[in-house]
Automatic annotation (TrEMBL):
<dbReference type="GO" id="GO:0042805">
    <property type="term" value="F:actinin binding"/>
</dbReference>
<dbReference type="GO" id="GO:0030018">
    <property type="term" value="C:Z disc"/>
</dbReference>
<dbReference type="Pfam" id="PF00412">
    <property type="entry name" value="LIM"/>
</dbReference>
<keyword id="KW-0539">Nucleus</keyword>
<dbReference type="InterPro" id="IPR001781">
    <property type="entry name" value="Znf_LIM"/>
</dbReference>
<dbReference type="GO" id="GO:0046872">
    <property type="term" value="F:metal ion binding"/>
</dbReference>
<protein>
    <recommendedName>
        <fullName>LIM zinc-binding domain-containing protein</fullName>
    </recommendedName>
</protein>
<keyword id="KW-0440">LIM domain</keyword>
<feature type="compositionally biased region" description="Pro residues">
    <location>
        <begin position="103"/>
        <end position="113"/>
    </location>
</feature>
<dbReference type="GO" id="GO:0005634">
    <property type="term" value="C:nucleus"/>
</dbReference>
<keyword id="KW-0677">Repeat</keyword>
<feature type="region of interest" description="Disordered">
    <location>
        <begin position="83"/>
        <end position="113"/>
    </location>
</feature>
<keyword id="KW-0479">Metal-binding</keyword>
<dbReference type="GO" id="GO:0045214">
    <property type="term" value="P:sarcomere organization"/>
</dbReference>
<dbReference type="GO" id="GO:0060537">
    <property type="term" value="P:muscle tissue development"/>
</dbReference>
<dbReference type="GO" id="GO:0008307">
    <property type="term" value="F:structural constituent of muscle"/>
</dbReference>
<keyword id="KW-0862">Zinc</keyword>
Length: 113
């Protein structure tokens, strides 16, 4: 039987060959250790601290900010109650929620005697 070399896999980030000694398996792909970092903040990731969205990888914090639910009560810690709309993360302006009610006021509301 002829010798068959191992199949060479390409890193999804840099498209270069990934060899067994340097591979990080995650999200169904094999990455270089130095390429396995958050697509937004560039923090180095581990298989258990990453989230994948449409082929891109993120740390869980950036993933939650970019793709998670918006509004009061979501997230953890004091930093989650800010008015950050996420525009610097690619979220569109105009999609943010307001604290103003969107229903008609009751009869007589707003009238002063």
């Amino acid at each position: 039987m002829p010798f068959k070399p191992p199949e060479v896999v390409k890193c999804p980030k840099c498209n270069q060959n990934v060899y067994a000694a340097e591979e990080v398996p995650a999200a169904g792909k094999k990455w270089h250790k130095m390429c396995f970092k958050c697509g937004l903040c560039k923090k180095m990731l581990e298989a258990m601290t990453m989230a994948e969205h449409e082929g891109n990888i993120f740390c869980k914090q950036c993933y939650a900010r970019k793709f998670g639910p918006k509004g009061y009560g979501f997230g953890q810690g004091a930093g989650t109650l800010g008015m950050d709309t996420g525009e610097h993360l690619g979220n569109k302006s105009g999609s943010e929620m307001t604290n103003k009610p969107n229903y008609a006021p009751p009869p007589g509301a707003g009238q002063h005697d």
